[in-house]
Amino acid sequence: MTRMLPQRAWDALKREWLIYHLGHPEFRFMFEAPPENEWVSLDCETTGLNTRTDEIISIGAVRIVGNRIMTSERLELLVRPERGVSAESVRIHRLRERDVAQGLPIDEAMKQLMRFIGSRPLVGYFLEFDLAMLNRAIWPMLGQGLPQPQIEVSALYYDYKFKQLPAYQQQASSNIDLRFATLMKDLGLPVRDAHDALNDAVMAALAFIKLRQLKGQI
Asked: Which residues make Cβ contacts (< 8 Å) with residue 32, sequence separation at least 6?
């Protein structure tokens, strides 16, 4: 009879397999145990919302330690796109062609970001989009995407609001408003200028910290 390996054993095997197939062994530190009680909140600005064809033009990231946002330990990168910046995207993030012309090549930007993150779990709002964009750039370098655990702020907020609903309303819980402006206002948090990568990363970090605190009170 075949014996099933416990989940921890499978996780360890998967980790070793990913490290063995890592395109750049210098980044194996991303698979180490993360520093206790630390995370990285990140955000990207892009030329559009198509994860297959649009490009990253800026990255903002900040470290979180406990309940503190380490603004002195932040990362702000401009990235030079290969196909330029459209007028429509400039209206959103206010980054013009000449602003990003001296930005980093995407490979160098990814290397700096991975070194900044280390093995810390990732925090963000609509993080799935950011990671799709980042992993598209990282995959040719590493043969895989970012391996860190991911924490979606809107999912934390959903769980928080859901637990506040009476049982008869939980069937309609899909009506919970997950828009970022609504989330920030409801949590009583300050709002910075949106569509700036670092500002968005800091706001996501604020929401993450507040929701962790509220979770302990429910």
From this structure: 118, 119
Domain count, the chain: 1
Cα 163 from chain centroid?
25
DSSP letter, residue 174: G
Task: Give CA–CA dist 174/156, Å, rounded.
Answer: 14
Distance (Å, whole) CA 136 – CA 205? 24
The DSSP string of 108-126 is: HHHHHHHHHHTTPPEEESS
Full domain range(s) for residue 203:
26-215
For 75, half-sphere exposure in the C-beta direction (CA atoms, 13 angstrom radius) is 24
Is 40 within 8 Å of 121 (Cβ atoms)?
yes
Residue identified by tokens 């800091």 is: 202
Amino acid at 28: R
CATH number of the CATH domain containing 80: 3.30.420.10
| Residue with token string 């990207």 | 44
**CB neighbour list of residue 182: distance below 8 Å, 6 or more residues apart:** none
Query: What's phi and psi for 39, nearest 5 deg?
Result: -145, 170
- Phi, psi values for residue 146, rounded to 5°: -65, 130
Q: What is the mean pLDDT of each run of 10 residues along the chain (218 residues)?
A: 62 68 81 95 94 95 97 94 81 81 94 97 97 96 92 96 75 78 95 87 97 80
